[in-house]
Structure formats: structure tokens, C-alpha cells
Write a structure and sequence with these properties.
The complex is a heterodimer of chains A (131) and B (372). With 131 residues, chain A is an alpha+beta fold. Chain A has 3 helices and 9 strands; from the N terminus they run βββαβββββαβα. The longest helix of chain A is centred in the last third of the chain and has 11 residues. By secondary structure, chain B is of the alpha+beta class. Chain B folds into 2 domains: 286 residues, Probable tRNA modification gtpase trme, domain 1 (Gyrase A, domain 2, 2-Layer Sandwich); 86 residues, Aminomethyltransferase beta-barrel domains (Elongation Factor Tu (Ef-tu), domain 3, Beta Barrel), CATH 2.40.30. In chain B, 20% of the residues lie in helices and 35% in strands. Chain B is built from 8 helices and 20 strands. The chains are: A alpha+beta (131), B alpha+beta (372). Chains A and B meet through strand 4 and strand 6 of A and loops of B.
């Protein structure tokens, strides 16, 4: 996935939406900037397939040596896939957060939040301010 | 970054090394240069170089300095031989801990006695005020806060002493643990002590502010071949936690007395009086006290400060510090537990954001360095 074509939440999750036959699917992960800021990841708590999550709702958490950070879903929907390989290979998030390091896929039921998400340049700007 | 933050003489040095700088007790301090785990491991297996210039350094001299400090500290200062360093506490009238400190008895190059108190950065202003309030007009005491005039560096780890000797031409190996000496580095007066806060062997150097960068560079280039790395406060915290060492503001506060904290060894009540000694004499045998313990968890979720410790649906304590231990590769924490459930081996749980995670009371420290 090309990071320049993704949308980002202020809380550093990225989302990629695909549409097929009127049904929208979202793939969600966290940005390279987030992974770099967290450093020393030790654990990721992932949800179960079938769970409903609201736009902006918490779907998991990522734990680093220093702190724990909740993961928020940029859109609302039903979780249809979870990248269960991540738990034992958190280094994947550092190596390839936009492809191999995806976290969940959702069947989108509420994408009204999309308008509030940041495009790549706007997200870059936010990162520059935070970093 | 807040412009009002104090900067150590090594601030630019940290920035040049891409440190992530945070506000720690009003100081702009490096929390990490890269990975906390790597910095932690470098200190355990090779050596770490830490800027601890934010620690408060208070100097006392004059004929009444010894008696004055003896009156303020839980540990006897009268009779402390020159060159010795002691861990001690400063308590209020109620026996609550104002700070945990190191007291050094030193002899200057001219042979005059002076004392150095190294206090926590977060408590420095409070302690300076406390000292001013406790001084009596008829006491002959010279007192100076020298924090801003000097830098303080810690070199810790199995290769620390050899690195310092090679880089700075000092002889430290013969120094005993918890001793200090006035020395010379590059023609300037410095204080070298065989002390630290990581659970490793090593030393701490107090050097004039304007020499700090050149000394840090010499240490770094001498230590490079043996794996020495600059280490930030993030790893300093995981190192001290593994070593079971309390940190003020977490395990220690004015609401905690030394016995609860497991620091009874630093309280000497016999044949002396100090601020708080009467209260502490009563608390020593109090059965209602909490107890500072170590907790080890088998899962991956990490207990953090203020999380409740539960046993059979009842809250029996509180976590004061927690992390993922890089050495043990599992979550560890320090907590205060009700004394009746604080025995080593007791199975409890930590309420981690609403979900109880099994935890076991274990002996502190979590980590002891291998015997030489």
C-alpha cells in the first residue's frame, strides 16, 4: 500500500478503503511515524473477527516498554479479518507498516468519519509538529 | 519544547545524537537515543553512558556541617569517614520521606572536610528550602547548591570502569563500592564515586560544566569498541526497576515511611535523634504498614503506575512502577501490598485496564549482576 494514498486519523492509524459491488472494505494499520514514536513494542492486543467497532472506537492496544496506546478505528464496521501473525512478529510493524503490517479489515457500515481524516500531506504536517 | 526548561551542559550533545528530549522535573532530558531495550542491554552486557546532571548537588562545609546533616538524615553522618558515600533518607517530623539521597563525606585537595548531598531533581527546590528552614542561626555551615555549575555523568556496566580508566586516566578499580574521591580530569577538579542506579558496577563523575562535552566524547570513543552506548532516562528507569531500586515520586513520597518502602536499613535510630526519628521509632513495629514488593507476570500486558492489585475481588495494593523487563523478557512491577498478602510467592492479580492479569509476588531485586 502506498502511504501517500492512505487516509490517517490524528491518532496515527491509517485506513485504505476498497469498494466492490457497493460493499466497502477498510484495511487499518498504524503509521511508520507511530511505530517510530512508540519504539520497543512488546505486545499488541487484537480484537476478534465479528466484533463491531464504531468510528473512533477502540479496537485494540499496543504496548511498548514505556507506555500503552489504544488503537482506534478510523471508520465504523464489523471486523472481518485480523492480522494474527503480528502478535509474534511485532517487528513487522517497523519494517512494513503499510502492507505486511496491516492490523484489521472491516466491512464498513459507517464511513461518515472519512471526511475528518487527514490526507498524506496533512498527516505529514501533523507528524512534523509532533516530532 | 518549553523554553523554560533547564538544560544540562550536555543538552546539545544529546540533540546531536538524535535523542528524544522530554521534560523531566523541569529539565530537558534525553529519554532515549534509539531503542530503550538496546540501551538497557548495552548497559547490562557492556556499558552505558548517562547524563545525570539534573540530579541536585548540594555542598556543605563548616564546623557544624556534620552535626547538621546528622540531624536531617536517617542515617548517621557523625563518624562517616572521609571518602565514604551512604544512601540515606531525609524525613519530615512524621517520618514521611522527603527525599532519598546520597551523602558523600569528602576531603578537598587542601585537606578540608566537606559533604555533598546528591538529591533527586524533582525534589531539589523542596530540599533546599527544607535545609534553609532547618538551619539554626548559631550553626556554622557553608551551604551551596552547586547543581548548575557542574555536570554529572554515570558510566555503568561490566565495561564501565575499564572505559573510564582508559578514557580519563583515572584509577577506579581499586576504589571500593560506595566510596568517592576528589580527582583531576584534564587538569580540572572532579569528584569520582563508585556508585550508580542501574544494578551494575560503575561510577559517577561530577565535572565542571564546561568540560562535560569533551569528557562525554572521550568516554564514548574509548568505549565504542567495547559496546558502550549513550543511555537515556527511559533505560535508566527500566534498569533501576530491574535492580529493585525505588524512585521518588513512585515508590517514595511523604506519605510513605522508610519501613514500608523496605528501606529500614537506611534508618539508624540507636543513640541519636534526627527530624522524624521519634515518629519512626513508633512506626517500626506497626503491623498495619504496607510493604513494597516485586510483582512478576506471565502474560504480555504491562502493569503501569496506579493500577490496582487484587486478590479474590478485593483491592490489596497499588502498582507504583511497571515495565516490560528487557532482561527477564516479561512484565515486572513494584507495588505496595497489604502486609498479610505481601509474602514472596503469593498469587495476586493486577487489574490492567479492567482485566485482571495473574501476577506473583517475587523477591526484589528482579535482577542481580553476576558475581565477579
Amino acid at each position: 500500500m502506498n502511504p501517500e494514498e492512505l487516509l490517517y486519523a490524528e491518532t496515527h492509524e491509517w485506513v485504505h478503503i476498497t469498494e466492490e459491488g457497493g460493499a466497502k472494505t477498510a484495511t487499518v494499520g498504524i503509521s511508520a511515524f507511530a511505530v517510530e514514536q512508540l519504539t520497543d513494542l512488546v505486545y499488541m492486543e487484537l480484537p476478534e473477527v465479528g466484533k463491531q467497532v464504531a468510528a473512533g472506537g477502540e479496537f485494540g492496544e499496543v504496548e511498548s516498554v514505556k507506555a500503552v496506546s489504544p488503537l482506534y478505528s478510523p471508520v465504523g464496521g464489523e471486523i472481518i479479518a485480523v492480522n494474527s501473525d503480528l502478535a509474534d512478529k511485532l517487528e513487522t510493524l517497523g519494517e512494513d507498516p503499510y502492507e505486511v503490517g496491516w492490523i484489521i479489515k472491516l466491512r464498513v457500515t459507517d464511513d461518515s468519519s472519512l471526511a475528518k481524516l487527514l490526507d498524506h500531506p496533512a498527516y505529514q504536517k501533523q507528524c512534523a509538529e509532533e516530532g | 519544547m518549553d523554553v523554560a526548561l533547564a538544560k544540562t551542559p550536555l543538552y546539545e550533545w544529546h540533540v546531536e545524537r538524535n535523542a528524544r528530549v522530554v521534560d523531566f522535573a523541569g529539565w530537558a532530558m534525553p529519554v532515549q537515543y534509539g531503542s530503550i531495550v538496546e540501551e538497557h542491554r548495552a548497559t547490562r552486557i557492556a556499558a552505558g553512558l548517562l547524563d545525570i546532571s539534573h540530579m541536585g548537588r548540594l555542598r556543605f562545609d563548616g564546623s557544624d556541617a556534620e552535626a547538621f546533616l546528622d540531624r536531617l538524615l536517617t542515617r548517621r553522618v557523625v563518624g562517616l569517614a572521609p571518602s565514604l558515600v551512604r544512601y540515606s533518607l531525609m524525613t519530615n517530623e512524621k517520618g514521611g520521606i522527603l527525599d532519598d539521597v546520597l551523602v558523600y563525606h569528602m576531603r578537598s585537595a587542601g585537606g578540608e572536610s566537606f559533604y555533598l548531598l546528591v538529591v533527586n531533581a524533582s525534589n531539589r527546590e523542596k530540599i533546599v528550602s527544607w535545609i534553609d528552614a532547618q538551619r539554626r542561626d548559631d550553626e556554622e555551615i557553608g551551604f551551596r547548591d552547586e547543581t548548575r555549575e557542574a555536570a554529572m555523568l554515570a558510566v555503568q556496566g561490566p565495561n564501565a570502569l575499564a572505559t573510564v580508566e582508559e578514557a580519563l586516566g583515572l584509577s577506579i578499580e581499586p576504589m571500593k563500592y560506595y566510596t568517592a574521591a576528589v580527582s583531576e580530569i584534564g587538569g580540572q577538579s572532579a569528584i569520582v564515586s563508585r556508585t550508580g542506579y542501574t544494578g551494575e558496577d560503575g561510577c559517577e563523575l561530577i565535572v565542571p560544566a564546561d568540560t562535560a562535552v569533551s569528557i562525554a566524547n572521550r568516554l564514548l570513543s574509548a568505549g565504542e569498541s567495547c559496546g558502550l552506548q549513550p543511555v537515556g532516562l527511559g533505560a535508566r528507569d527500566t534498569l533501576r526497576l530491574e535492580a529493585g531500586m525505588p524512585l521518588y515520586g513512585h515508590e517514595l513520597s511523604e506519605a510513605i515511611n522508610p519501613y514500608e518502602a523496605g528501606l529500614g536499613f537506611a534508618v539508624q535510630l540507636k543513640d541519636r535523634a534526627f527530624v522524624g526519628s521519634a515518629a519512626l521509632a513508633n512506626q517500626k513495629t506497626n503491623e498495619d504498614l504496607r510493604e513494597r514488593v516485586g510483582l512478576q507476570l506471565d502474560g504480555k500486558r504491562v502493569p503501569r503506575e496506579n493500577y490496582p492489585v487484587v486478590l479474590r475481588d478485593e483491592i490489596v495494593g497499588t502498582v507504583t512502577s511497571g515495565t516490560f523487563s528487557p532482561t527477564l523478557e516479561r512484565p515486572i512491577a513494584m507495588a505496595y501490598l497489604r502486609r498479610d498478602v505481601a509474602a514472596v510467592g503469593t498469587e495476586v492479580a493486577v487489574d490492567i485496564r479492567g482485566r485482571p492479569e495473574p501476577a506473583r509476588v517475587v523477591k526484589l531485586p528482579f535482577y542481580s549482576r553476576p558475581a565477579n
